[in-house]
Every structure is written in structure tokens, then in C-alpha cells.
Amino acid sequence: MTRSLETFGAWLLAVLWILPLAYAVWAAVHPTEFSTRFVLSAPLTLANFEAAWDAAPFARYFVNTIMLVTLILAAQLVLCTLAAYAFARYEFPGRDLAFALVLVQLMVMPDVLIVENYRTMSKLGILDSTLAIGLPYMASAFGVFLMRQTFKQVPKELDEAARVEGASALQVLWKVYVPLGIPVYVAYGLVSVSYHWNNFLWPIIVTNTVNSRPLTVGLQVFSATDQGIDWSIICAATLMTSAPLLIAFLLFQRQFVQSFMRAGIR
Amino acid sequence: MNRITAQVHGWLLLLPAAVLLAVFTHYPAGATLWHSFFSTPKPSRPGVFVGLDNYRGMVEDPVFWQSLANNLWFALGTIPVSIALALLMAVWVNGKLAGRAFLRLAYFTPTVLPMIAVANIWLFFFTPQYGLLEQFTGLFGLPNHNWLGSRESALGCLIVVTVWKEAGFFMIFYLAALQAIPPSLYEAARIEGAGGWTVFRRITFPLLMPTTLFVLVNAVINSFRLVDHIVVMTRGGPDNATSLLLYYIYEVGFKFWDVAYASALTMVLLVILAAAAVVQFGFLERRIHYR
Known about the structure:
The complex is a heterodimer. Chain A is mainly α.
């Protein structure tokens, strides 16, 4: 009795939770006149996607977003790996203080320092560029923290054995530590890509042309123009911008959930 | 490898990340404080030292107080509900209910979608007259209501969207913690004849305490950081009823271009986040004793 009541509650909540997405799919694949009329005989169409695709330079936005998440992730992986290796395996004066200073970024995120970081980007003369969107996020305190934990669990004997064979510090890092950290890299990578694919406030501040706008900003510019763009087209555009992440999530559900478990706090 | 070389290597490995962190986290935090004591620079004239004038202006600014109050209500509205729902979801997904895979999928999906995109969908839910919510309440003969357009309900709508977006994310942490609880504890409880609710209250909930504190800190930070949906759904309106602190900073800094005042406002946000940091570090030490 309680069991079936629980099952009912769980399913009710799940249906409520999926409803907004389900509605967006409904509106996007049917003609506008069916956007609030839910009849099964409504004809299917891809016209809304075509209309959205033609109404704004979404192809360019896709390229910008892909470049952005690639740039950020590549920089994060390199910078955080090097720094984490230093914190995990080296003794140097000021190490603990430096680590504490790194952790400050867990609380004072770049999302909050928009005014000063805009000033800096303006001084550097790189406003309205992919680099400007990415720079504040490249040295990620969370990445350093996560990889330091991982590297600390690597047995020191492996490290020493490689050094006895004459490997340099960077070779040891590359041959011993990085391969053992791959599951953590995957987890961190998934979280980082989903975060920056979806990021909005800083990109909207620092970009102002099609050349650098990521998808999220492009979508906002597109749907905020009130000149009679209808809901079906906005829903189509919305789905389009979320599609790559959503499809990846549906295909690799288990990995996604486990990654967020492992690396949830970005 | 001698000690000095090791020290130099250590610093060299750290250097690239340290430079970027210093330039884009530590410097801007300090510069925010510094610039909050100056007037906003104009093309004709650089900013001059004005002491505490920006802060005095802030104390007298009703929109600042309104944003702060809104933010507190927003935090109070989102945090307990999303944490409670997250726990409930985790218990359900971790249990033996039919269709667990679908449940997990449904609960977690909002986490991977861009806030800016889902806010567009929710916007249509709340649209006056032909929005979905209006059509639904219309079925019961309830009068029309402009959900996002009236002061009483606009913030509530944003809270609903935020809870919907966050609960599945927090669920993940509870799920990880639930899976780490040894089954022997539950077996022992069953032998003692404890009922489902007693088991939850006496075993599950206390063991989840560290997770709850961790999620709580994250939820507090998020409640001061999430403003994407405001840009789409209300732009702080009607009449500043949905302006949150970070959104107000964004408006002052990048719509009114009063960067000096925006710096003073940012300082308030930094103080709030620092307070959250103090709580988290206090709790992190306690967490070690749990393990």
C-alpha cells in the first residue's frame, strides 16, 4: 500500500519535472495553431526549426560556443593538472597559503566579479572575443582541488620508480599521474562543458556582436526581440541550443550522473 | 633531485594557474573594494576619491534594500524546498520503485539544460491569457492572473523555476551519500523491527547530515548567483519586485554604467559569500570527524 503510494508520488513528480521539456518538444514539432491545442491528430512539422535557424545566425553561435567550451576545457585541464601536481607532490615555501588562496575562488566565483573583470578585459583590448569570455574561468579552483585529491592517491612508489629510470618531472606527470586520473578528467570535463555551454551572465556582458556571442546569448537576443516571433519558433530555438547537451545526456546518462556526483561543485 | 630544484619546480608548475587566479579573482576582489571609494570615471574626468559616498548612497537607495530583501525571500523560498525535494528524489531513485531509470532521468534533466533556455519555456507557462498556467486555472473557472506581471506572484514564479532547476542537481549528492550507507545498518534495524519512517529518521537522515550541510552551502551560494532567468522572465520587474542583488549589480554596472556604485554593491555580495565561506570551512572540519 505505502509502496504503491510512493511509486505514484515519485511518478507524479517525475511527470511534473519533465513537463516543461515535453511541452517545448510539442510546441516545436507542431504548427503554431497547435501550440496550446493538444490533439493527437496535429500534423508534425520541422518548419519551426527551419524558421528559427534562418531567423538568427545560429550556425555561427554554435561555432562560437563549441570554440568557447573547447578553449576553456583545454586550458583548465593543462593549468589545473600542473598546479594540482605541484600541490600534491612538491614541498615549497608558501604552498599551504597558495592553496588557501586558490580555494578562495570556490566562493568568490568569476560570475560575481563582473564589474572589475569587464574593466580588465577592456584594458587588455579583448572585449567581445571568445578569449575574454573564457579567461576568468581557465584557472579553476575546483579543478585544482579535484585533481590534487586524485594525484595524492597515486602511490609514491610509482613516482619514484619512474624517476629512478630517469624521467623528468613533466614526464612523470604525463606517464604516471595523468593516465591514473582519466576517470576524474572525464567527470570534470563533462561538468565543465555543461557549465560553460549554459553560462550566460558574463558572456552577455562581455560580448556584443555575432562574432563572439555563444548560443545562450544568441538565444536571448533572438527571443527578446518582441517583433512577433511566435512560441513554436522560440521553443524550436530553445531545443536547438540545448540539443547537443541533451542528446549527450540521454546517451551517456550513467556517466553524466556519476560525473556530477564526482565533480558536482565545479 | 635536491631541495632547491624541487621548490623551483613546484612554483613553476603552479605559476600559470596562479597568475590567472591573481588577475581574475584576487585582483578584481581587491580592486572592487578600492574602486568603491571613488566616483564613476567619465570621459571628461577620471574618478575622484569620494570616501564612503557610494556606501551612503547605497544606504539611501530603496532599490538596493528591495533587492536585498528580495534576495533573502528568494533564498528562503528556494533553499528549504529544493533540499527537501532533492532528498525525497534521492530516496525514491535509490529505492526499488518501478521505473527508477525514468525517474532519475526526469529529475536530473533540468540540470543539463541552459537556464536561459528553460526560462523561455517557463515564460510561456506564466504568460497572461493564453499561457499554459492560465488555461489550466481557467478550466476551474479561476479569474485571470498576470503571474509575472504582478508584484505578489512574480518572485514566487522565479522561485518555482529555480527549485525545478536545482533539485535534481542536489539529488545527485544525496544519491551518492545514500549509496555509501552500509546495508548492514538497515538489516540491523529491520531485525529490531523498526518501521520505514523510524529507519529514515534514526539512520538515514543523521548519516546524511554532512551532505545536507554541503548542499546547503551550495544552495546559499546559488541563491546569490543565479540571475539568468530574471533576464529572460522579468528583468527585475514589475517595479523591482524580482530584482536580486547580482541582477541589480548587473543593471547598475552595465545598463546605467555607474561602475563605482556597482563596486559598492558588489562588496555587499562579497561579504555575504565570505560569510558562507566561513560556515563551510567550519563545517568541513567537522565533516572530517564524521568519517
